[in-house]
């Protein structure tokens, strides 16, 4: 028997009513209602209902035919909704809230903005300007791309006289192709874009070939051809898109002096000029890198203060692309969404638009590191879905676990009693998280997989004892379940992390020694560490002006017995870098493009294209490059003015490229994130 009866509706009316057709406001919250309890035949009698509260129930979707023609305000907070497209049956809806429905994402926000033409408030926020952009500019752009795709790839494939079978085949191929290849907007909105592209493509085919539209497709709104592509300031758009749940965004007014926007090609600093012999050698990488600065964001400010130039930014990682079935999502080759951390906040930024999509704050924390993993989670009805999870950690020694799509920090792990310097996930075991702490320990955790109510169980699997504070960690690409490498305050170490060994607490297995001014030494601070490929390690130590490239396979003797063995790093080359003795300016690599990046104390980014060297290094007889390799280019920091003033001295703490090397994200010591895009 349904929970909803005529008597219940009359009783829950505000004020109470004697007839269903007279009810204008109805409160059905906290009744444990499921979708099947919403009887369309009963609801069709609520002809004048304007306000409906369905919050704090168990609804996973809306029936398609509730027939509430005058509904203006709808509250669906705290349910289990998975889809919003059925809301199009309420065309007069002006105010809609569905907060704390963990399966709804930013894509759903955009869907309702398109479907509900009268919607003004979404989750308590005025979305009028953004909704107009979605309905008009977004639609016009996608329509243009869809028609261009047809003209280029499919128009000539259809004969002048075609059969119904040929039309059906062309339609199937076109819909599949257009959804795969038409890309627009940030990767975080790829689901919405595919949804709209399919809708537009079906309408286009209906007009061009006389094919019928799917019954669930909403016709595209006609656009004003004279309308500007966007009249909104990007910072206003960022404010419109963000602020969901515990997240909020703030972007300060940062401007770039136009004359300084171009990068300085192939130049070293005055103190490190290359000789003509070095500059003209055939080994020198010849790739011409050209980039334009896109955005400079001040989005980690304490208390959202525009005067905050003291918050240090430490870590940034690009969001992984979610799997689509058994293969990678073909729509996006690599993500353009990056997670950054510094001070009390973690931000998610769309590199193309400069939009701060989400912001997570902990007032008493200082975040030092972030890392991504992708978990397959069970949602309602025992169905499974993949979601990206972000781990963030810092001074408090606590790991925060954030389900980004749901805008929800669902748990924390009290991993260490001292600050956590860095974290990373295993590439082969998605729930395995390494945390490196100032307590001179590296811990391996199984963070578990949260259930549909976000219950999870984390367990510690391993503790690696270090002789000094670990600063950077890297899993060996060829055997990520067996060996971990760490750059520490007192040297570079390796551990056997294989879990079939009985010992839960383990000392290091090897310490590597590197050339010093006169001999080999193991005692030096290693504050930069990354793999360039499966074998080549890039490390930066306290030796001024030098970054080492060395071979893991030739340096580490896996056949040797015993722990705490000293091994000499087999150096392949040295990279010329700044002569500063300043520490903690870390490096990164882009393995797919064979690039190394490292910032300096003057706001510059040193870039090294090493594709001309790696083949020789990989050979069995690969010899060390006799000379230092100069940077391919140095990316100069532009002349910025923040609120009319130049920021103080800028240190580049970290610089990271996305896997496809389309974007370069630079984190500084003055609370400014810089984003460049490769031309």
From TrEMBL:
WD repeat placement: 413-447
Pfam family membership, one: LRR_LRWD1
Coiled-coil blocks: none
SUPFAM superfamilies per the UniProt record, alphabetical: L domain-like, WD40 repeat-like
GO BP: any one term: establishment of protein localization to chromatin
Domain Leucine-rich repeat and WD repeat-containing protein 1 WD intervals: 290-678
Matches recorded under InterPro entries: Leu-rich_rpt, LRR_dom_sf, LRR_LRWD1_dom, LRWD1, WD40/YVTN_repeat-like_dom_sf, WD40_repeat_CS, WD40_repeat_dom_sf, WD40_rpt
Gene3D superfamilies (UniProt xref): Ribonuclease Inhibitor, YVTN repeat-like/Quinoprotein amine dehydrogenase
Cellular component per GO, a single term: nuclear origin of replication recognition complex
Polar residues bias locations: 266-280
Compartment(s): Chromosome, Centromere, Kinetochore; Chromosome, Telomere; Cytoplasm, Cytoskeleton, Microtubule organizing center, Centrosome; Nucleus
Matches recorded under PANTHER family: LEUCINE-RICH REPEAT AND WD REPEAT-CONTAINING PROTEIN 1 (PTHR24370:SF10), OPTICIN (PTHR24370)
Identification of the protein by name: Leucine-rich repeat and WD repeat-containing protein 1
Originating species: Tichodroma muraria
Lineage per the UniProt record: Eukaryota, Metazoa, Chordata, Craniata, Vertebrata
Gene behind the chain: Lrwd1
């Amino acid at each position: 028997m349904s929970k909803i009866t005529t008597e219940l509706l009359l009783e829950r009316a505000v004020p109470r009513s004697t007839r269903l057709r007279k009810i204008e406001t109805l409160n059905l919250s906290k009744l444990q209602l499921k979708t099947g309890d919403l009887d369309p035949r009963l609801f069709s009698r609520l002809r004048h209902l304007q306000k409906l509260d369905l919050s704090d129930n168990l609804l996973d979707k809306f029936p398609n035919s509730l027939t509430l023609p005058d509904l203006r305000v709808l509250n669906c907070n705290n349910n289990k909704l998975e889809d919003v497209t059925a809301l199009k049956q309420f065309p007069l809806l002006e105010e809609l809230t569905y907060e704390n429905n963990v399966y709804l994402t930013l894509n759903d926000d955009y869907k309702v903005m398109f479907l509900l033409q009268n919607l003004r408030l979404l989750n308590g926020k005025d979305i009028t300007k953004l909704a107009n952009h979605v309905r008009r500019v977004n639609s016009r752009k996608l329509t243009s791309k869809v028609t261009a795709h047809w003209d280029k790839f499919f128009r000539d494939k259809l004969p002048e006289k075609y059969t119904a079978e040929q039309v059906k085949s062309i339609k199937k191929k076109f819909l599949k192709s257009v959804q795969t290849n038409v890309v627009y907007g940030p990767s975080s909105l790829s689901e919405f874009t595919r949804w709209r592209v399919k809708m537009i493509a079906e309408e286009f085919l209906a007009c061009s070939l006389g094919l019928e539209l799917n019954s669930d497709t909403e016709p595209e709104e006609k656009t004003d051809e004279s309308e500007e592509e966007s009249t909104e300031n990007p910072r206003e758009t960022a404010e419109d898109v963000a602020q969901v749940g515990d997240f909020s965004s703030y972007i300060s007014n940062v401007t770039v002096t136009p004359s300084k926007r171009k990068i300085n090609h192939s130049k070293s600093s005055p103190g490190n000029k290359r000789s003509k012999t070095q500059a003209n050698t055939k080994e020198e990488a010849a790739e011409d890198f050209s980039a334009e600065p896109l955005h400079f964001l001040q989005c980690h400010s304490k208390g959202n203060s525009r005067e905050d130039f003291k918050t240090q930014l430490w870590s940034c990682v690009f969001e992984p692309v979610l799997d689509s079935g058994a293969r990678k999502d073909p729509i996006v080759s690599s993500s353009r969404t990056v997670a950054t951390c510094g001070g009390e906040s973690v931000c998610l930024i769309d590199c193309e638009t400069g939009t701060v999509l989400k912001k997570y704050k902990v007032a008493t924390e200082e975040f030092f590191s972030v890392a991504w993993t992708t978990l397959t989670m069970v949602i309602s009805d025992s169905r499974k879905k993949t979601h990206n999870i972000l781990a963030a950690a810092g001074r408090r020694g606590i790991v925060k676990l954030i389900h980004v799509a749901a805008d929800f920090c669902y748990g924390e792990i009290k991993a260490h009693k001292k600050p956590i310097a860095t974290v990373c996930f295993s590439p082969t075991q998605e729930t395995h998280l390494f945390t490196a702490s100032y307590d001179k320990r590296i811990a391996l955790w199984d963070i578990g997989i949260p259930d549909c109510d976000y219950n999870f169980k984390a367990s510690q699997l391993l503790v690696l004892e270090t002789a000094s504070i670990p600063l950077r960690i890297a899993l060996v690409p060829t055997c990520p379940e067996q060996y971990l490498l760490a750059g520490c305050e007192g040297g570079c170490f390796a551990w056997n992390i294989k879990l079939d060994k009985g010992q839960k607490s383990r000392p290091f297995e090897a310490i590597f020694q590197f050339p010093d001014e006169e001999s080999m030494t193991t005692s030096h601070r290693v504050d930069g560490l990354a793999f360039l490929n499966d074998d080549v390690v890039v490390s930066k130590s306290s030796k001024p002006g030098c970054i080492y490239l060395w071979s893991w396979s030739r340096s580490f003797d896996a056949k040797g017995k015993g722990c705490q063995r000293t091994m000499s790093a087999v150096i392949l080359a040295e990279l010329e870098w700044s002569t500063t003795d300043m520490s903690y300016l870390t490096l990164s690599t882009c393995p797919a493009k064979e690039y190394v990046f490292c910032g300096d104390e003057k706001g510059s980014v040193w870039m090294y294209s090493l594709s001309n060297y790696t083949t020789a290094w990989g050979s069995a007889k690969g010899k060390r490059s006799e000379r230092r390799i100069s940077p391919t280019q140095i990316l100069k920091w532009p002349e910025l003015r923040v609120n009319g003033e130049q920021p103080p001295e800028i240190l580049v703490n970290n610089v990271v490229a996305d896997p496809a090397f389309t974007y370069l994200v630079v984190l500084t010591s003055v609370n400014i994130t810089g984003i460049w895009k490769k031309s």
